[in-house]
């Protein structure tokens, strides 16, 4: 039985190349605008696109509403991480961090507001920046990535204030513990380290792979994702997805997920995680899998919850990963539609 | 009463008894001294009002008398009779008065009527006169307007303007003193002048006519002279033929070809002219010739009388053969189909010579009833080629020119009108006849100047030289590139089937010196089989896998690891890159669905293909991509992190120099090779 080919337009060289690019696109990062109506997404070709969530979610949404409003080339390498302050979009990729004004982005051809490069030790290869974290109390930005250090940058002056060393292999993810304030970082070396921002010292180390209940040697020991909720922390990656009690450094719940998880977050009384495998998993704190919602990408790398108070109608979960599509979940139970590059 | 009746008579009546009422009555004579009594005249003299009073009085009297008689009679008695008699007489007199009055009234009435009648008659007469006069007035007015509107013919003549007239006309015609003042004279003068001029011009015209006659006669004479020259020139040309051959200037041959070209149908003619022009101007490797039978071409246009004779003959024959079986319906349909698909007896041959002495032979035919052109292709090489099994489709006449322009597969007729013709004879599609007739590619139609626009189907499509000229250069270049890339692939496939990836020396820098993974198998697979593979679904969904593409399967092995690569080769290779989809069997099955690094490997060969193109025509692309796949497999296997729980050494020790083994959230392996330092890094 012949499978129907989706379109009959003859493909020239340009169209074939663009189709191949879209097939091999990976979306690494997402960020919601301060007004809550727009979603920025960054891919492995260094492009950042802006989608209009309000247009795509409105009742008159057409196919064009699911396409980007603006596309621009932000970095030379992949855009691994993005965060939004109340006025700026900060993006990081190959060794540099750049910022863009949200108000200017929507006009095409905008230029970056500033760009910085943290002081790196090695010059042979430019290390990538895998994670960005905003510390609102200090108005600073923490960067972490390929050079195994956490750099703190003051957002007002742009100066790099601290460099926290301790990881022996590159850092994947960061999380902020509001109360203390402390920063947690998880890396390729399999350890989750807690840093106190005032003293700039490492206060606690959890080597996840050394705990037999959660370690999975065949996957490796790398920690791909971190999330923290005051006393609790959930982390996953090579080892199984585990919920830890931070004070006692003990694993309390192990979530039975075989595939390595790349992104995890606390949401209300659930834990949402996504990784290899085409679905978003919802877990109860007790370790039960509440739901597994299929998505359109074969693997997911980034989840984003739009909880901006200014746009309650755009309160959605968006998931992106190994495809050119960003799935939008209006209700955590099913995928509503997909935005696409 | 007798006295009463005598009173009725108009003529004079002698009254016998005079009644008291007599006093009132005047019996006057009229002016006429006639003896008769004219009551008409009397009427004029009496006053109608007094007559009316009299009438009233008389009636009253009568009433009184009657009342008295009644009285007396009712009383009775003899002496009454006299009084009754008296009264009776009185009433008789009154009766007479009444009668007179009545007559007078009648007469008055009649008079009045007569007068009215007369007056009416007069009025009528005046009225009639008035009408007559009005009519005459109208008539006169009409006549006046007619006169005023009268356009004399002289006004239609465009006369020269006044100034010109006065300037040009000789004084005896223009008579300025007279005509200036008097417009009538002026017009007359102008008309005179006009007449003069016209006469002169008529003279001139007659002269020119006679001149023309003379000149025509001279032309005739000269023509005859020239035509007598033609046979003499022909004989000179014949004599010069051996000289031409000696000097390698085949003018005669070209001339003969042009002669034959005159019998070509318009699209083939356009193609012939444009191709010859292009060949002479830009490309010496192109040679054009015409094949086929000129006589048959001439026979296509037989004059009608001959064909009618034939028809009558064939009718006679048919009548004789009615007893024999008629051909069956199927055979009739078959004949109709053959008729519809008939080719013009002449065809144009183009030979394109490429650098390595291989030649592409193209034969263009014209299907007369369908108004489209088709082409058959053949590639001949300088040395005999041994075709490897996987390369059978590369140079086959059926597919070597497929999709020269994207989407131009040549299986359907480009002329939308043909569909109706096909329906009549039961042809489904031209695809079934393509092997025999050649492919009706769109570029072939364009080279013949035929354009079939989709939006406004034209009734008749005629061959257009400018369309052909604008497409000639690009198409020729594409054809050459196509042949060369196919030949290059042909050679490469021969080597690939033996497990050797032929990398040319100028592309060696793209790869490290030591490549351990080996290509063990290279085969073609069918389109349906490609669609059934489980790891090619993305390509199919993206619309990159069509039935005009060629599909291959390569197998690369190292140790226990086996990498399957499904290749889509677009006919437009090498400007359109081949697309690879991978499936690795090593410690489980890994495809782009479950392993990000396999996805990255595919991206390295599919998206980053431009750096693998090699030297200018880019024919090395496929082999470079395969070699890169081998290198990528090496890197993948060697950088796989060691599982501490499993005993024993790693199957593939790391030999490649890498700065970092993993990078980024997806933990990519270092697939990028850096030359000349020779280490691997991440993109």
TrEMBL record, chain A:
Repeat in keyword set: yes
An example Gene Ontology molecular-function term: RNA binding
GO biological process, one term: RNA splicing
Name the UniProt record assigns to this protein: WD repeat-containing protein 58
This protein's UniProt keywords: Apoptosis, Developmental protein, mRNA processing, mRNA splicing, mRNA transport, Nucleus, Phosphoprotein, Repeat, RNA-binding, Transport, WD repeat
This protein's record includes keyword Cell membrane: no
Lineage start: Eukaryota, Metazoa, Chordata, Craniata, Vertebrata
An annotated GO cellular component: nuclear speck
Pfam families the UniProt entry points to: WD40 (PF00400)
Known function: Component of the THO subcomplex of the TREX complex which is thought to couple mRNA transcription, processing and nuclear export, and which specifically associates with spliced mRNA and not with unspliced pre-mRNA. Plays a key structural role in the oligomerization of the THO-DDX39B complex.
Family the UniProt entry places it in: Belongs to the WD repeat THOC6 family.
Binding partners and assembly: Component of the THO subcomplex, which is composed of THOC1, THOC2, THOC3, THOC5, THOC6 and THOC7. The THO subcomplex interacts with DDX39B to form the THO-DDX39B complex which multimerizes into a 28-subunit tetrameric assembly. Component of the transcription/export (TREX) complex at least composed of ALYREF/THOC4, DDX39B, SARNP/CIP29, CHTOP and the THO subcomplex; in the complex interacts with THOC5; together with THOC5 and THOC7, plays a key structural role in the oligomerization of the THO-DDX39B complex. TREX seems to have a dynamic structure involving ATP-dependent remodeling.
Highest taxon, organism lineage: Eukaryota
Intervals holding WD repeats: 164-205
Compartment(s) where it occurs, according to its Swiss-Prot or TrEMBL record: Nucleus speckle
Organism encoding this protein: Trichechus manatus latirostris (Florida manatee)
InterPro entries: THOC6, WD40/YVTN_repeat-like_dom_sf, WD40_repeat_CS, WD40_repeat_dom_sf, WD40_rpt
UniProtKB/TrEMBL annotation, chain B:
Main localization of the protein described in the UniProt heading: nucleus
Keyword line: Nucleus
Annotated segments matching region Disordered: 1-42, 301-330
GO biological process: mRNA export from nucleus
One GO cellular component term: THO complex part of transcription export complex
Location(s), subcellular: Nucleus
Domain of life according to the entry: Eukaryota
Pfam families: FmiP_Thoc5
Biased composition (Acidic residues): 306-319
Composition-biased stretches (Basic and acidic residues): 22-42
Keyword Nucleus: yes
InterPro entries (UniProt xref): THO_Thoc5 (IPR019163)
GO molecular function term, any single one: mRNA binding
Protein family per UniProt: Belongs to the THOC5 family.
Name used for this protein in its record: THO complex subunit 5 homolog isoform X1
Originating species: Trichechus manatus latirostris (Florida manatee)
Name of encoding gene: THOC5
């Amino acid at each position: 039985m012949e499978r129907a080919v989706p379109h009959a337009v003859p493909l020239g060289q340009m169209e074939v190349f663009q189709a191949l690019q879209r097939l091999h696109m990976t979306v690494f990062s997402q960020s919601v605008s301060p007004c809550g109506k727009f979603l920025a997404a960054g891919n492995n070709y260094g492009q950042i696109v802006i989608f209009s969530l309000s247009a795509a979610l409105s009742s008159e949404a057409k196919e064009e509403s699911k396409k980007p409003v603006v596309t621009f080339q932000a970095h030379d390498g992949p855009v691994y991480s993005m965060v939004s302050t109340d006025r700026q979009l900060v993006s990081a990729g190959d060794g540099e961090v750049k910022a863009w004004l949200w108000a200017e982005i929507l006009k095409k051809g905008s230029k970056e507001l500033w760009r910085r490069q943290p002081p790196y030790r090695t010059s042979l290869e430019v290390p990538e920046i895998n994670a960005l974290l905003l510390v609102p109390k200090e108005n600073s930005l923490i960067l972490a990535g390929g050079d195994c250090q956490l750099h703190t940058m003051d957002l007002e002056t742009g100066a790099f204030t601290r460099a926290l060393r301790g990881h022996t292999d590159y850092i994947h993810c960061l999380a902020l513990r509001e109360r203390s304030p402390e920063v947690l970082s998880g890396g390729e070396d399999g350890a989750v380290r807690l840093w106190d921002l005032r003293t700039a010292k490492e206060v606690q180390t959890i080597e996840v792979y050394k705990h037999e209940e959660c370690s999975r040697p065949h996957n490796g020991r790398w920690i791909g994702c971190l999330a923290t909720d005051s006393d609790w922390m959930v982390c996953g990656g090579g080892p199984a997805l585990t919920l830890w009690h931070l004070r006692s450094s003990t694993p309390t719940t192990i979530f039975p997920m075989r595939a390595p998880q790349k992104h995890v977050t606390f949401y209300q009384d659930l834990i949402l995680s996504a990784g290899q495998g085409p679905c978003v998993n919802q877990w109860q704190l007790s370790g039960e899998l509440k739901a597994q919602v299929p998505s359109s990408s074969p693997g997911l790398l980034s989840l984003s919850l739009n909880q901006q108070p200014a746009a309650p109608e755009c309160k959605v979960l968006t998931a992106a990963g190994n495809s050119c599509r960003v799935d939008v979940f209006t209700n955590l139970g099913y995928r509503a539609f997909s935005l696409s590059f | 009463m007798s006295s009463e009746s005598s009173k009725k008579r108009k003529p004079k009546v002698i009254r016998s008894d005079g009644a008291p009422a007599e006093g009132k009555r005047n019996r006057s004579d009229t002016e006429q001294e006639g003896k008769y009594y004219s009551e008409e005249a009397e009427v004029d003299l009496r006053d109608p009002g007094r007559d009316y009073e009299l009438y009233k009085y008389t009636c009253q009297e009568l009433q009184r008398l009657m009342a008295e008689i009644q009285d007396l009679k009712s009383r009775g008695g003899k002496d009454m009779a006299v009084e009754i008699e008296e009264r009776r007489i009185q009433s008789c007199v009154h009766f007479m008065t009444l009668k007179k009055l009545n007559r007078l009234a009648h007469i008055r009435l009649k008079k009045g009527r007569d007068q009215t009648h007369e007056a009416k008659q007069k009025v009528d007469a005046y009225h009639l006169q008035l009408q007559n006069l009005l009519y005459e007035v109208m008539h006169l007015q009409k006549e006046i307007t007619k006169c005023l509107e009268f356009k004399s013919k002289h006004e239609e003549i465009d006369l020269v303007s006044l100034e010109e007239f006065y300037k040009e006309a000789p004084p005896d015609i223009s008579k300025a003193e007279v005509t200036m003042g008097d417009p009538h004279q002026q017009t007359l003068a102008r008309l005179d002048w006009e007449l003069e001029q016209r006469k002169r011009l008529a003279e001139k015209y007659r002269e020119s006519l006679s001149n023309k006659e003379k000149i025509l006669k001279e032309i005739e004479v000269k023509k005859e002279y020239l035509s007598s020259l033609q046979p003499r020139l022909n004989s000179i040309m014949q004599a010069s033929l051996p000289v031409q051959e000696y000097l390698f200037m085949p003018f005669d041959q070209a001339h003969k070809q042009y002669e034959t070209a005159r019998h070509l149908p318009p699209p083939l003619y356009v193609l012939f002219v444009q191709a010859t022009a292009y060949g002479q101007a830009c490309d010496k490797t192109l040679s054009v010739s015409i094949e086929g039978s000129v006589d048959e071409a001439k026979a296509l246009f037989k004059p009608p009388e001959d064909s009618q004779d034939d028809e009558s003959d064939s009718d006679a024959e048919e009548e004789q053969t009615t007893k024999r079986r008629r051909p069956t319906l199927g055979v009739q349909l078959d004949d109709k189909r053959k008729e519809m698909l008939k080719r013009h007896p002449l065809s144009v041959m183009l030979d394109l010579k490429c650098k390595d002495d291989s030649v592409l032979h193209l034969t263009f035919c014209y299907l007369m009833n369908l108004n489209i052109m088709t082409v058959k292709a053949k590639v001949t090489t300088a040395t005999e080629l041994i075709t490897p099994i996987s390369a059978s489709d590369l140079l086959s006449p059926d597919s070597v020119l497929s999709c020269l322009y994207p989407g131009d597969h040549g299986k359907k007729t480009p002329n939308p009108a043909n569909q109706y013709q096909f329906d009549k004879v039961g042809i489904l599609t031209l695809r079934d006849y393509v092997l025999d007739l050649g492919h009706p590619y769109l570029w072939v139609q364009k080279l013949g100047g035929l354009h079939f626009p989709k939006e406004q189907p034209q009734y008749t499509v005629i061959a257009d030289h400018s369309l052909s000229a604008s497409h000639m250069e690009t198409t020729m270049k594409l054809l050459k590139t196509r042949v060369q890339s196919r030949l290059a692939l042909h050679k490469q496939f021969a080597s690939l089937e033996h497990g050797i990836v032929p990398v040319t020396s100028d592309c060696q820098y793209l790869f490290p010196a030591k490549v351990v993974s080996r290509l063990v198998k290279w085969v073609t697979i069918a389109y349906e089989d490609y669609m059934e593979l489980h790891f090619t679904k993305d390509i199919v969904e993206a619309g990159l896998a069509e039935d005009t593409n060629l599909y291959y399967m390569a197998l690369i092995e190292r140790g226990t690891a086996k990498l399957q690569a499904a290749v889509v080769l677009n006919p437009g290779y090498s400007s359109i890159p081949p697309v690879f989809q991978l499936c690795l069997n090593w410690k489980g099955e890994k495809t782009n669905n479950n392993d990000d690094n396999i996805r990255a490997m595919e991206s390295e060969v599919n998206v980053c293909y431009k750096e693998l193109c090699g030297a200018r025509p880019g024919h090395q692309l496929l082999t470079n991509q395969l070699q890169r796949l081998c290198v990528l497999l090496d890197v993948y296997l060697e950088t796989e992190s060691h599982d501490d729980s499993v005993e024993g050494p790693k199957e593939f020790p790391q030999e490649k120099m890498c700065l970092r083994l993993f990078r980024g959230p997806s933990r990519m392996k270092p697939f990028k090779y850096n030359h000349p330092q020779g280490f691997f890094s991440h993109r």
